[in-house]
Every structure is written in C-alpha cells, then in structure tokens.
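Extended Data, panel c. Modelled sequence:
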Amino acid sequence: MKRRTLAFVGGATLCAALFVFAFVAAPKSCQWGNAAYSKVGIGCLIALSTMPFALRAGRSVFGTMGFAVGFVAFGCGVWLAGLFAANFRIICALF
C-alpha cells in the first residue's frame, strides 16, 4: 500500500471512530460525556496532524504540511458533525 493511501485510510478510520464515540458519549453528556468527547477529539486532532509526517505522505515538507492541515480541517468537521448529530447537551444545568 502507498504511504499516501495508508494515511488516508488511517485518517478516515480515526474520524469514523470519533464520530461513533459521539453517540456513545452523548447520552451521558452532562456527567462525563462532554469532557470525554472533548479529550478524545483533541487527541484525534493531534493524531491527525502528526499522521502525514509519520507516514511521509507528501512528496515535500510543504506537501506534508498541506496534508496535515487538510486532515485537521476534516477532523474538526467530523468532530462538530458528531457533536450536533449525536445531540449533545451543551448547557446541562442553568440554575
């Protein structure tokens, strides 16, 4: 498998796992779900940003940086999509 394909497959798998975890954490969003989803999301973004460098997905440093920025942008989109699709409670107790 090419390194670029391996990076795409790894990134897609990571984003799919993040999206699935949103539905696991959403029912308990007021107890532990928001904190856990935030920590897992930040970890996922860090992993997505380092994956192109570890796998040397680009032909040059700037190409690899472009892949990293694209992966992080896609990861942010998946993170927010999971947040809204799973119906997280943002404000748990107002009073």
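Helices lie at 3-25, 29-55, 61-85. This feature is highlighted in the accompanying rendering.
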